[in-house]
Structures are given as structure tokens and as C-alpha cells.
Design a protein that fits this description.
mainly alpha; 5 helices; about 85% helix; elongated
Length: about 140
């Protein structure tokens, strides 16, 4: 089962990266390699902190509360993660759907692996991509 979560982490990161690139290609193309490097370096600790906290607060608590009903837990996880992302990054309806799917999948990963490791790793990878692109908009 571990190989499936590894593969999913690569696939979802490629989807997120493609979505971010298509929506921000001018900013990314005009950024210097130094700005990209700095954005990634700053994004790494932010992404780790965010992915860990959101996994503990929104996913692990749902899994514990609905441990007898994984399907309900996954749906609640999708809603809790997807709805606020309507106003986040990626935003709007496409971002909300993408985040909702990710929330659903991350709750499933906790049930399937009986741990929070893959949920944190997969969310971390998404956050590194998102935070890096956001930082490119504010870095010189």
C-alpha cells in the first residue's frame, strides 16, 4: 500500500504544479533563478509547519472522531479542506474542488496507512509548490 501513496504524492504534485504554472506562468518565467531558490527555501519551513498543523487539527481529529465510519470521515475531511480553499490558493471553484479531493484523499491515507505520515508528506509537497509561487509574487 505504501507504493500507492508514494505514486499519488507524485501525481498530485504534478497536477498542482501544472495548475499553478498555467495560472502564473508569466511570473514564474520572469523570476530569476535566485528568486525561485529563495522562494523555495522560505516555503520549506512554512510548508512543513502548515502541513503538520492542518493534518493534526483537521484530519487526525476527524479520523479519531469518526473512526468507525471512514467514508463519513473522508467526506467531512473533503468539505473542511475544500470549502475554505474557495478563497485560498488555488482558489475559486477549481481550487475548492482540488483541495476537497485532496482533503478526502488525505483522510483516506490516515485510515489506510494507520498513521499521519503520508498525509503530512503529500500536503507538504503541495504547500511547497503553492507557497513558492505565492512568494514569487512578493520577492524582488
Amino acid at each position: 500500500m505504501e507504493a500507492n501513496w508514494y505514486n499519488f504524492s507524485i501525481i498530485i504534485s504534478l497536477v498542482t504544479g501544472t495548475y499553478l504554472y498555467l495560472g502564473n506562468r508569466e511570473a514564474i518565467a520572469s523570476a530569476s533563478s535566485e528568486a525561485i531558490f529563495l522562494a523555495v527555501i522560505i516555503a520549506l519551513p512554512l510548508a512543513l509547519f502548515n502541513s503538520f498543523n492542518e493534518t493534526i487539527i483537521t484530519r487526525w481529529t476527524i479520523v479519531e472522531g469518526f473512526s468507525k465510519n471512514p467514508k463519513v470521515a473522508a467526506i467531512i475531511g473533503a468539505l473542511i479542506f475544500g470549502i475554505p480553499h474557495y478563497f485560498g490558493v488555488p482558489g475559486g471553484l477549481p481550487g475548492s474542488i482540488m483541495a476537497g479531493f485532496l482533503g478526502w484523499f488525505l483522510v483516506r491515507s490516515i485510515f489506510d496507512t494507520k498513521g499521519i505520515g503520508w498525509a503530512i508528506i503529500i500536503h507538504f509537497l503541495q504547500d511547497v509548490l503553492i507557497f513558492s509561487v505565492l512568494l514569487l509574487g512578493v520577492l524582488p
